[in-house]
Amino acid sequence: MVAIALWSVTIGMLRSVSERAGPVGGAALIYGAGALCLLALFRPPPARLFAPRYLLVGGGLFVLYELLLSLSVGLAVSREQALVVGLINYLWPLLTVLCAVLLNGERLGLLALPGFALSLYGVACVFAGSMTPALAPLVEAVRDAPLSPAMALAGALCWALYCALTRRWAGGRNGVTWFFCATAAVLLAMAVATGALTALPDAVTLLQAVLAGAALSTGYALWNVAMLHGRVTLITGAAYATPVLSSAFAAVWLGASTSPAFWWGALLVSVGALLCWQAGRRR
């Protein structure tokens, strides 16, 4: 449960640090701090013990997901859009079920269909700013600032592919520490290449980056422990409250204005994700 709480602060703090150090520089600081924290908490198995396709394909998908998530939040045109981007990220349970059907040949549970519908309708409510969204304002909202939402959706698909593919390839081992470090290395290289970190950030920026990195990486470490030793069904089910928790923290932390339609959409995304999870359990 602590992992869920830690992950819930990710979107708000990613946006906060990105506003102070830039999208690339902020993400590099956060993931750099997180990689150090994760190495201290969770020593990874030697890389030679992993299947090559797990490291290359699984690791590539993990890195790409983290890049798309962090940069989509940082590049959002406003704090309010950053909250919307965070919700789009939580379409990954829907996409994971689809990937499991298409790639692994698993059967589609009956609850998946209402789960799909609720999640998509929830995102539509958030985009249109209405509990009964019409097509015209929805299209206009996407057309006005398409980059961050598109990146968030692509990231959700990457995470869904990661979940669907690596389950068969991991061999019971967890390469998250290696993947997280690879993400930090890519972001730091991007920051150096683009000049995003030409000067030492101020103390407040560094503190926020360290806290955000520690929360994100510790969440990964604790989640792994929970999956190995905890009540997996209870913990996984509780994780689908994250869209609402994450939105609530981000709205308060960033001081972003939200409407009733936003919270209605966030609730629908959470319920839809929970139904998709239930459909996955019953296949």
UniProtKB/TrEMBL annotation:
Asked whether the keyword Metal-binding is assigned, the reply is no
The question of whether Membrane is a record keyword is answered with yes
TM spans (from-to): 20-42, 54-77, 83-103, 110-135, 147-165, 177-200, 206-225, 232-255, 261-280
According to the lineage, what is the superkingdom? Bacteria
Q: Which UniProt keywords apply?
A: Membrane, Transmembrane, Transmembrane helix
Question: Which SUPFAM superfamilies does the annotation name?
Answer: Multidrug resistance efflux transporter EmrE (SSF103481)
Recorded hits in InterPro entries, A to Z, give: EmrE-like
Q: What is the name of this protein?
A: Inner membrane protein yddG
- The organism named in the record is Methyloversatilis universalis (strain ATCC BAA-1314 / DSM 25237 / JCM 13912 / CCUG 52030 / FAM5)
Q: What is this organism's lineage?
A: Bacteria, Pseudomonadati, Pseudomonadota, Betaproteobacteria, Nitrosomonadales
